[in-house]
Amino acid sequence: MTKAKYSSELLSAAVEEFSSLPGIGERTALRLVLFLLKKEKDDAQRFSSTLKDLFDNVRFCKRCFNISDSDLCSICNTTSRDKQTICVVENIKDVMSIEQTQQYNGQYHVLNGVISPMEGIGPGDLNIDSLVQRIGGEDIKEVILALSTTMEGDTTNFYIYKKLLPTNVKVTVIARGISVGNELEYTDEVTLGRSIINRHLFDNANNK
């Protein structure tokens, strides 16, 4: 068991687990644990049960790799959405950011990262081949590249564009209303929404 920093080894172990979360320091972790201890036992058990259900049952959509409760996510299963447009994003948080703009009504494809040689991430580590397969197997008219405006994002955009050239599908990129170097999840909803609406052909953007 974890060596106790406090009067209780159980408390110390709980604080250590909470402080392992991103952005959570030891003091914040201690406040969270003490807050949970003040709650009714039923509330604490419900909290614990929710986390267990999350880890036991959450999965990734077999089509777009978005987070889901079933084989296909709610977005892929919604018949009212545009089935002929795919928005390519880096991660699940980007799907949530774009959905919050309420300016896009198509499908998604989550790459689960971007090409980054410095970090040892190559095209084979991403969901790029499955994207190409979707283009070949579904009636897709447009692919929107909505990756962060970083060097890694631009490299990934260009790689995907070259992979999709033989398919003759229309490839667009979001407008540069987003500052270079910014990640999508930190962009305000209005700017992100306008960038989706004002997207343009990738080859035109690449030649600027």
* Number of helices, counting only DSSP H or I runs of 4 residues or more: 9
**Total of domains:** 2
- Structural class category: alpha/beta
CATH architecture of the largest domain: 3-Layer(aba) Sandwich
What does the model show?
This protein has 208 residues and is an alpha/beta fold. The chain folds into two domains: 49 residues, Helicase, Ruva Protein, domain 3 (Orthogonal Bundle); 137 residues, Dna Topoisomerase Vi A Subunit, Chain: A, domain 2. It is 44% helix and 11% strand. The protein is built from nine helices and seven strands; from the N terminus they run αααββαβαβαβαβαβα. The strands form two sheets. Strands 4-3-5-6-7 form a five-stranded mixed sheet. The chain has a two-stranded antiparallel ribbon with strand order 1-2. Strand 5, helix 7 and strand 6 form a beta-alpha-beta unit. Helix 1 packs across helix 2 and helix 5 packs across helix 8.
Feature tags:
single chain, 11% strand, Helicase, Ruva Protein, domain 3, Dna Topoisomerase Vi A Subunit, Chain: A, domain 2, 7 strands, alpha/beta, 208 residues
Topology of this structure?
Layout: H1 9-19, H2 26-38, H3 41-57, E1 59-60, E2 67-68, H4 74-77, E3 85-89, H5 92-101, E4 107-110, H6 129-137, E5 142-145, H7 151-164, E6 170-173, H8 189-197, E7 200-201, H9 202-206
Parallel strand pairs: 3-4, 3-5, 5-6
Antiparallel strand pairs: 1-2, 6-7
Task: Summarize it.
With 208 residues, this protein is an alpha/beta fold.
